[in-house]
UniProtKB/TrEMBL annotation:
InterPro entries: AAA+_ATPase, ABC_transporter-like_ATP-bd, ABC_transporter-like_CS, P-loop_NTPase, PhnK
PANTHER family, per database record: PHOSPHONATES UTILIZATION ATP-BINDING PROTEIN PHNK-RELATED
Origin organism lineage: Bacteria, Bacillati, Bacillota, Bacilli, Bacillales
PROSITE patterns, per database record: ABC_TRANSPORTER_1, ABC_TRANSPORTER_2
One protein family per Pfam: ABC_tran
Domain ABC transporter intervals: 15-283
GO molecular function annotations of the record: ATP binding
UniProt-recorded name of the protein: Phosphonate transport system ATP-binding protein
Classification via Gene3D superfamilies: P-loop containing nucleotide triphosphate hydrolases
Keyword Chaperone: no
UniProt keyword list: ATP-binding, Nucleotide-binding
Domain of life: Bacteria
Length: 288
């Protein structure tokens, strides 16, 4: 019985994104279908709007890490921001298996339902911890905020959960009442991770979590991410411009360029046999 349930769950993607387009700017009659833009182009030559994501399609399965790699401006952050409802999409759809059985497009839901999805089903870790944390709250307070948003009100259990989460990311409990603005970059990212995990979401979005950290600190955060994947069986979208990070963690990888997904597949396959010229260049520079 258990196995049947598990196999049904794993067959259906946890998240399915289809034809996602995101335009910054007003748009014009000539760019209503952005696929007309030249392969490299994101800016409409007629109205100057930027198409940050163009016809993005992918699935995320339970418990897997999907890496997104691509050069600066290729639309990686925009994609995760759209999924977390920080930015509004221009068109497209996304279905989450844990939300009404994956039957409804989350982008078409009401603001209230979107808040529910964000608070209960998603966790986000921003590249910039100032976006993900309230620096004037204590680290425990940051976790409490997320727990309260997802419907926990009991002070004792909130405190117990915050303690457990901080322990998990190896933040000394003695610092639970301290503001994360006094923490190092690596510690701030670990507080963000604990906050994102607070509501046990099936999907985590991680945008350049280790960018800008010292190599040894990076390694600890990457280790933590791997442990979380093993323990919590959560599906993760891991954005990085660093193919080395992607190689270490991602089961499957999606390569973005100019707002488009130019290649996707098993990470090993992409590293061994990159198809697109841009991916070949990326892989060669990693290996050389
Ligand atoms: N709020 C905004 N208003 C206008 N244009 C934007 C906005 N946010 C992003 N863009 C544009 O959208 C495109 C994609 O940006 P995005 O931040 O998603 O790229 P990225 O792949 O995350 O890059 P990086 O690796 O530098 O973080 C870029 O051309 C960027 O200038
Ligand atoms: Mg980015
Ligand atoms: Zn246009």
């Amino acid at each position: 019985m258990q196995d049947t349930i598990r196999s049904t769950v794993t067959e259906q993607p946890q998240l399915k994104v289809q034809h996602l387009n995101k335009r910054y700017g007003k748009g014009c009659s000539r760019c209503t279908d952005p696929t007309f833009l030249a392969e490299e182009g994101q800016r409409c030559p007629h109205c100057g709007s930027v198409w940050a994501c163009i016809d993005v399609n992918f699935d995320l399965y339970q418990g897997e890490i999907l890496g997104i790699v691509g050069e600066s401006g290729s639309g990686k952050s925009t994609l995760v921001k759209c999924l977390y409802f920080d930015d509004q999409i221009t068109s497209g759809s996304a279905h989450i298996a844990a939300y009404k059985n994956g039957e409804l497009d989350i982008f078409s839901e009401s603001a209230q339902q979107k808040r529910y999805i964000r608070n209960h089903l998603l966790g986000m870790i921003y590249q910039n911890p100032w976006l993900g944390l309230k620096m004037s709250f204590s680290s425990g307070g940051n976790i409490a905020e997320k727990l309260i948003a997802s419907g926990s009100y009991h002070v004792g259990s909130i405190r117990a959960r915050a303690t457990e989460l901080l322990e998990h990311v190896e933040i000394p409990i003695s610092r639970i009442n301290e503001q994360p603005k006094n923490f190092s970059g690596g510690m701030q990212q670990r507080v963000q991770i604990s906050k994102a995990l607070a509501n046990n979401p099936p999907i985590l979005l991680l945008d350049e979590v280790t960018t800008g950290l010292d190599l040894s600190v990076q390694a600890r955060v990457l280790d933590l991410i791997r442990n979380i994947q093993r323990q919590f069986n959560v599906g993760m979208i891991l954005v990085s411009h660093d193919l080395g990070v992607i190689r270490m963690l991602a089961d499957r990888t999606m390569v973005m360029k100019g707002g488009r997904v130019i290649e996707q597949g098993l990470t090993d396959q992409i590293l061994e046999d990159p198809q697109h010229a841009y991916t070949q260049k990326l892989v060669h520079s990693l290996l050389s």
